[in-house]
Amino acid sequence: MLNLLGRTLLAFALILTFSFSNCSTVIAGLQEGEEVPNYVRSDITGFDFHGQDLSKSSIAGAVARDANFSDVDLHGTVLTLSDLKGSNLNGVNLSDTLSDRVNFQKTDLRNALLINMIASGSSFAGAKIEGADFTYAVLDSDDQKNLCSIAEGTNPITGVSTRESLECVEGGSGYKPAMPGS
Question: How far is the C-alpha of 101 from the C-alpha of 6, rounded, in Å?
Fold first, then answer.
């Protein structure tokens, strides 16, 4: 319970930071002296990041429609307020990410790792999720219910079924809210 509370407080603090910051647009790519990529408020529509390690970077507020993030390591990344509509996220690692209010509409999330992801206020309408692992992901209840209605497959890395990771109720599209430790 404390772990969930801590993650929720962290998410809230980051949301406030991004909501009230007065930053100028950052050009996509590494800036001199930076250790991790920074794409905050960048337009990276159509970029090809296939197979790259972008872990612990920031893509907050970015427009990344139709980008290729297949097999990319994005664990620990901040994606808040980003638009990834139509992007290829097949095999992506989005574990431990802050992905609130992200547009995941029509994305390919097959075989993705979304473990411990905070995705409240995000939209997954039309996303492909076969083999995705959502274990302990924080999702809106409507998103979780809708994802349960299309959930199938088993993640090739974790061996966890998509339905199990979403804690879907067997025999229907209903769900049981995912709560760590319960």
Answer: 19
Is pLDDT at 142 greater than 80 in this prediction? Answer: yes
- pTM for the complete prediction? 0.77
Q: Which residues contact 98 (CB under 8 A, 6 or more apart)?
A: 10, 11, 14, 77, 78, 79, 80, 118
Q: How many CB atoms lie within 10 A of CB 44?
A: 20
Give 118-124 contacts, CB < 8 A, sequence gap 24+: 118/7, 118/8, 118/11, 119/143, 120/11
The per-residue DSSP string of 116-159 comes to: T-B-TT-B-TT-B-TT-B-TT-B--HHHHHHHHHH---B-TTT-
3-state secondary structure 41-109: CCECCCCECCCCECCCCECCCCECCCCECCCCECCCCECCCCECCCCECCCCECCCCECCCCECCCCEC
Whether the Cβ atoms of residue 177 and residue 2 lie closer than 8 Å to each other: no
Q: pLDDT by residue (tens digit) across 90-114? A: 999 999 999 999 999 999 999 999 9
